[in-house]
Design a protein that fits this description.
InterPro entries: Fe-S_hydro-lyase_TtdA-typ_cat, Fe-S_hydro-lyase_TtdB-typ_cat, Fe-S_hydroAse_TtdB_cat_sf, Fe_dep_fumarate_hydratase. It comes from Paenibacillus aceris. Its cofactor is [4Fe-4S] cluster. The protein has 516 residues and is an alpha/beta fold. 34% of the residues lie in helices and 24% in strands. It is built from 15 helices and 20 strands. A five-stranded mixed β-sheet has the order 2-1-3-10-11. The protein has a five-stranded mixed beta barrel with strand order 13-14-17-18-20. Helix 6 (168-182) runs parallel beside helix 8 (222-235) and helix 12 runs parallel beside helix 13 (429-438). It is globular and about 70 Å long. The structure holds (2S)-2-hydroxybutanedioic acid and iron/sulfur cluster. (2S)-2-hydroxybutanedioic acid binds at residues 63-64, 142-144, 381, 400-401, 447.
Length: 516
């Protein structure tokens, strides 16, 4: 197994940077289905560009590495201790090479281990099988979509769809509710894996395992196939759309598995995965550890080159006056902000500051290290690399889910005079009220488009709070051409609230029993 380390390293790089072929086809199909010229269509084309860029740059598709989870099948007698050691080595080295973000954080102190190793990370499962080969599968499922996983205990009363009993129709209701509650926050359009039965732990595990199925496979179990088909058809009537911007495509895949349960329990567990559905696998020669084949079609088999060129061409052909783009340079004035409304595309130049969970908590009762009057704050935990001369570079930098900052954001906007908050998935009523009072705007960037946004950061001007770790530090970035959509304005309008309300009506229309 002298090649085992290298094969695992190659698997990590492939998974992080090159979206598999079956996932790409689903994104392509969504692009074809979405109404042309809409915000969702525009976002899907940015997503396609990003997929292409990540492949070309051999850089992370999304900055969030998630919890690297390995599933290994090996013949009887294979040395699992050595395999585990080499997997850890490969993870640490891929992190050093900026193919993965430093994502392992001490839950109590918040300290980042810096190499993705630590208690419980990465996750490694071994299983023996009769075949004379080793299979290593890997999934990188980000934290934002992980937060949208949900587990139901039946019977239950669910908002919108009402009573969900211990039967196929109750299961149907749970799944539809799961898609509804995710809204755009898990970077829709997404994929879901559903586990029926088991206990709380094995139910979630079963759900996550469904994500290892091929996007285009057909469930051999007739009842489950019916549920999958129903969900695929009806989830897309909820109108949530890409990034929750509203639209025709909300779900790209639904896979349901079943296990036995206890008489007292009936769990329906749902694992939500964003469009940046990064999972791949390799089949290895059991003697040498060399790669014999890949478990899923590779990204390079479904090229996005053409789509990339077409969207670059289309962008060139848009007339200046049709662009409806407002270019703002930081610091931004109140007057400029008050002139913006939901739906405008804003292009930001000047300095932008990143800040996410640790920073927001800190700023509540401390001063900021720099003047934030008129500033644009970006909810983002980037992948960074330092060159030999000690200079930092942004390697991947898409937005993180903003709603986590809801308890702090309104106060922080007012305390420091921030004018633009950039993130994804939208924020709640407290922030909306602060935007109105103070004169601020929320801009929704496209989640997962980490390569697309990284190119907007021309230089790292400085960094504060490195003690929070790379993703949580406050990076000061010289920015050029960072485009995002106003989804919450200073006049009390929120596209997120509108889309959610509309989706709730659509969900409620699915209350009547379907599977009797
Ligand atoms: O941690 C991140 O960078 C993003 C996260 O995956 C999210 O979706 O919020
Ligand atoms: S930012 Fe979006 S695309 Fe990236 S891991 Fe989080 S949910 Fe997925």
């Amino acid at each position: 197994m002298q090649h085992f380390y290298q094969s695992v390293y190659d698997l990590i790089v492939e998974t992080s940077t090159n979206l598999p072929g079956d996932v790409r086809r689903a994104v392509q199909a969504a692009t074809e289905k979405e109404d042309k010229g809409t915000r969702s269509a525009l976002s899907l084309s940015r997503i396609s560009d990003n997929i292409h860029m990540a492949e070309c740059n051999v850089s992370p598709i999304c900055q969030d590495t998630g919890m690297p989870t390995f599933i290994i099948h090996c013949p009887v007698g294979a040395n699992q201790i050595i395999m585990k050691k080499q997997i850890l080595e490969a993870v640490a080295n891929a992190t050093k090479a900026s193919k993965l973000r430093t994502n392992s954080v001490d839950s109590l102190t918040g300290a980042n281990t810096g190499d993705n190793l630590g208690p419980g990370t990465p996750v490694i499962h071994f299983e023996q099988w009769e075949r004379d080969e080793v299979e290593v599968k890997l999934i990188l499922k980000g934290g934002g979509c992980e937060n949208k996983n949900i587990q139901y205990s039946l019977p239950a009363e669910l908002e919108g769809v009402g009573k969900a009993g211990r039967d196929l129709d109750g299961i149907r209701k749970c799944i539809m509710h799961a898609v509804y509650q995710a809204q755009g926050q898990g970077c829709s359009a997404g994929f879901i894996g559903v586990g029926i039965g088991g206990d709380r732990t094995s139910g979630y595990e079963l759900a996550k395992h469904q994500l290892f199925r091929h996007v285009d496979d057909v469930n051999p179990h007739p009842e489950l196939r019916k549920v999958e088909e129903y969900v695929m058809e009806h989830a897309n009537t909820l109108g949530i759309g890409t990034m929750g911007f509203g639209g025709q495509v909300t779900l790209l895949g639904c896979k349901v598995g079943v296990a036995n349960r206890l008489p007292a329990s009936f769990f329906v567990s749902v694992a939500y995965n964003c469009w940046a559905f990064r999972r791949q696998g390799v089949l290895l020669n059991p003697e040498t550890g060399e790669i014999n084949g890949w478990s899923y079609p590779r990204g390079s088999e479904v090229s996005f080159q053409e789509a990339f060129e077409a969207s670059a061409e289309a962008a060139k052909n848009v007339k200046e006056e049709d662009r409806r783009e407002i270019v703002l340079t930081t610091p931004i004035s109140e007057e400029q902000i008050r002139s913006l409304k939901v739906g405008d595309v804003v292009v930001i130049n000047g300095t932008m500051h990143t800040g996410r969970d640790a920073l927001h908590k800190y700023l509540m009762d401390h001063d900021a290290p720099i003047d934030l009057n008129g500033a644009a704050i970006y909810h983002c935990g980037p992948v960074m690399s330092k060159d030999e001369s000690g200079e930092w570079h942004v390697k991947a930098a898409g937005p993180t889910t903003s709603i986590r900052e809801e308890p702090y954001q309104g106060d922080i906007i007012k305390k420091f005079g921030i004018r633009a908050v950039i993130g994804k998935g939208g924020m709640g009523p407290k922030t909306l009220a602060a935007l109105k009072d103070h004169g601020g705007v929320y801009l929704n960037a496209i989640g997962g488009a980490a390569q697309y946004y990284a190119q907007c950061f021309k230089k790292v001007e400085g960094v504060d709070f490195m003690e929070f770790g790379i993703p949580e530090a406050m990076w000061h970035l010289e920015t050029e051409g960072f485009a995002a959509i106003v989804t919450m304005d200073s006049h009390g309008n929120s596209l997120h609230a509108d889309v959610e309300k509309n989706a709730f009506e659509k969900l409620s229309a699915l209350k009547e029993p379907v599977f009797k």
